[in-house]
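Try this one yourself first.
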């Protein structure tokens, strides 16, 4: 479970009032737009898609700049800079697609 609480939506900046929204960092409208974002998933495996969605739902990917995000590792011990075209995690440094990149794509597509 994510221990961070957010007072404003990470997507639109509106004030968050519900406990669930504060925990995830997204209001219900933004969360729905992110879930329904049109992103090409063909190059990703099912576990990567699930991990990207979990990263977003946990509020563990935070926008830094227009297309750059700070992503927290699954175990919470590391952070990575991620964008739709690259990531500083091990898979991203090797040139492969990682779930951090996919989460960034999903957020930007919303």
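Now uncover the answer:
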């Amino acid at each position: 479970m994510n221990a961070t609480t957010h007072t404003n939506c990470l997507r639109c900046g509106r004030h968050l009032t519900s406990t669930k929204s504060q925990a995830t960092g997204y209001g219900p409208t933004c969360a729905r737009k992110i879930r329904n974002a049109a992103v090409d998933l063909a190059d990703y495996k099912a576990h990567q898609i699930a991990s990207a969605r979990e990263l977003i739902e946990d509020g563990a990917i935070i926008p830094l700049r227009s297309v750059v995000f700070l992503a927290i590792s699954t175990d919470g011990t590391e952070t990575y800079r991620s964008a739709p075209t690259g990531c500083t995690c091990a898979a991203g440094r090797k040139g492969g697609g990682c779930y951090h990149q996919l989460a960034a794509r999903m957020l930007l597509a919303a």
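Discussion: The chain is about 35% helix and 15% strand. Residues 46-57 form the longest helix (12 residues).
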